[in-house]
Structure formats: C-alpha cells, structure tokens
Amino acid sequence: MVSTQEITTRGKASDAEAERLARVEGAAYRIRHHALNMGEVQGQGYVGQALGAADMLAAVYADQLRFRADDPEWEDRDRFLLSTGHYAIGHYAALAEAGIIPVRELETYGSDDSRLPMSGMSTYTPGMEISGGSLGHGLSIAVGAALGLRYQGSGSRVYNFLSDGELDEGSTWEAAMGAHHHRLGNLTAMVDINALQADGKTDTVLRTEPVTEKWQAFGWYAQRVNGNDVGALLAAFDNAAAQAADVGRPSVILCDTKVGRGVPLLEDREKAHFMRIEEHEWQLCREQLTAGFEGKAAR
Fold this sequence. Notes:
By secondary structure, the protein is of the alpha/beta class.
C-alpha cells in the first residue's frame, strides 16, 4: 500500500520538476527573443544557430552552471567554453538572461567599441571564457581547463559547447582521446548537431555518423537527445551529473537541433548558416516566436 506521505512526496517532486521545466523553457524563449533583437541590429547574422541552440544554452545557464552574475571571475565558478565563436549571439543572449551582462547592452551587438563582437572574444565580454574564432580548438582548451582545475583541487566543472562541423577537425578527436586518458570526469561536452555548416549539409561535407558510437569508442559517456526538447536535455544533464567525478569518464551530450527553431519563417530558410533577414520580417519573427511559446505554455 502506498502511504499518504509517499503520495505527497511524489506530488512535490512532480511539482518541482514542472517548475524546473517551465523555468528553463522560459529562459530559452527569452534567449531566442534577445537573439532576434540583436540580429535586427545588423540585419543578418548567425541567428539560426542561436535559435536552434537556445534550449541547450538555457539548460546550462538556468539549471546547471554554478556562477555569480555580479562576479564573472569568481574562482569557484563552473566554466562554460563556447568553442563555436560565431554562436556568440546566442551566448550573449544567455549571459543577459543570466544577469551577467545588461539586457540593454545587447543593442550594441556587432557595433564599433561594443563588448559584444559578432564572434566571441574573451578579452571583451564578461562571462566569455575563451575566444572562439577558429573552430576545433574549444575541446582542447576544455581538456586543459578541466585538468588544471583538478590539479588545483577545485570542484568546478567544465562545460564545452561545440558544433557538429567541428567534428571534422582532428584536434577535436585528439582532445577527446586526451580527456579519456586523463579521466576527466569533471568535463561535459555539448555538441549542437544541426546538420549544417558553412560549406553545406554536414553529411555531405564529411560524414561523422555513427557519431554516438565514435564518442563511446573514445571512452566517453555519450547520450544523444533532441536538443530542442528541454525535458530530454535536463534528463541528459542529470545523467551526466551522476557520472561527474574528479576522476572518471568525461560526458558528451549530442543534441539534434533545428536551425531557426521556434520561428517557422526561418526554420526552412535557404542559406541558413548566415541568415539575411529583411527589415519587415523581424517583427513577424518575434510574433511567431511568442505565439509558439504561449501556445505551448497553454497546453
């Protein structure tokens, strides 16, 4: 027989999970909204990637990452390393959502003397741990950071965001092998698998499938999820956290995402790697985003 106390406990746990899910989904919506506003400043950019990766970024900043918004250099913070420097528009939106940079500063995106250049630069932006212009280096830096933190006796974790296109780079796989060799259980990689890169569709440029099995062969704890399903993302992060240790297996979460997610007008747009959006379309994009989010929340 199930006791009243057990039913109450389960109910509270269910309520807590629902609140957690709503919190992260709300953060993802606002990140997307910020990204559209920033994109309008330039009239173009890597808006599609920001929309597609918003759920991943929200899951990290609204649920996983340990940081102090008023002290981005706090010694005991977790490190989030954006390897894909051109995703900076999405990262800035996440930093604003987290309170690390002011929302009003997003209006300066890509402008002269702005702290928010179009490609991420650690020397300019609070909360930006590395510069990410050349792709394929982020995981190597993350391995060094995770190893260094362990040597320092720190309990901080390292999260590395990289793209499926970066899996073309040999340096990524060398770093993956090094992470396993050093048993970096304090390292979690996140791969945005949107199936698109500058030269075309990822599977026509250099096929990486079966990608989950590749990471597993390199000794990583690998999970593949729908990267636009917040519930699936949170479950994957929970599983990765259960694996976390000073010495242990590194984790990778492979996230299948949709470029332009949340804005139907942009989801199937040609030349989506670097989008040109017409002046009259920006408000329509915001309206579609809000309608989709409010419709989802009402269900």
